[in-house]
């Protein structure tokens, strides 16, 4: 559990730094190239976790994650939009307890953290916990949805981070990814 929290913290730090690097998003200059890319289905954990990767995101696991830590990173070129998936250790703890602990640890790191929701959800018939937050730093805002679920008794953590300038759109985009998750 400590390793999972450590990796989730590292993921939050990486995404926070990427979102707050003071660079303008270059999406306006791509002339629709990212919009023409189709969404693709990603299968992890021996096919027991599947989700739809939004257009414009690609596998960056070789650069930011590693197979040895079971961390997979999908991001756009700017790093402002990202999905991090961590396949953790087996745990007997309840998902709501783990989510509450993660929320408290995030609050300890970021006193300005805004928790939008911390709720139980069902993904493909399997129980999960979803923690939605808004993170603000250096005049930039990011939307974060963290999904906790168990796959074969192992904790799976998925963090979806999007620019929070349009919070309603970011929430909708994150929810689209969450609704695409299937667990076996």
From TrEMBL:
Highest taxon of the lineage: Bacteria
Keywords: Cell membrane, Lipoprotein, Membrane, Palmitate, Signal
Major subcellular location class: membrane
GO cellular component entries: plasma membrane
Subcellular locations according to the entry: Cell membrane
PROSITE patterns for this protein: PROKAR_LIPOPROTEIN
Keyword Protease: no
Tagged with keyword Lipoprotein: yes
InterPro entries assigned: DcrB, DcrB/EagT6, Mog1/PsbP_a/b/a-sand
Membrane topology type: Lipid-anchor
Pfam families: DcrB
Homology family: Belongs to the DcrB family.
Function: Plays a role in cell envelope biogenesis, maintenance of cell envelope integrity and membrane homeostasis. Essential for lipoprotein maturation under conditions where membrane fluidity may be altered.
Descriptive protein name: Inner membrane lipoprotein DcrB
Originating organism: Pantoea stewartii
């Amino acid at each position: 559990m400590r390793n999972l929290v450590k990796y989730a913290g590292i993921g939050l730090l990486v995404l926070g730094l990427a979102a707050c690097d003071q660079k303008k998003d270059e999406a306006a200059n791509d002339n629709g190239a990212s919009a023409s890319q189709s969404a693709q289905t990603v299968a992890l954990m021996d096919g027991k976790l599947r989700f739809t990767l939004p257009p414009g995101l690609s596998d960056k696991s070789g650069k930011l994650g590693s197979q040895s830590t079971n961390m997979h990173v999908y991001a756009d070129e700017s790093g402002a939009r990202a999905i991090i998936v961590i396949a953790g250790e087996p745990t007997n703890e309840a998902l709501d307890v783990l989510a509450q602990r993660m929320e408290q640890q995030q609050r300890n790191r970021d006193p300005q953290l805004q928790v939008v929701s911390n709720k139980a959800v069902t993904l493909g018939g399997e129980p999960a916990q979803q923690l939605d937050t808004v993170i603000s730093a250096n005049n930039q805002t990011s939307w974060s949805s963290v999904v906790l679920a168990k796959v074969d008794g192992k904790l799976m953590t998925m963090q979806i981070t999007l620019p929070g300038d349009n919070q309603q759109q970011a929430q909708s985009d994150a929810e689209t990814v969450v609704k695409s998750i299937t667990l076996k």
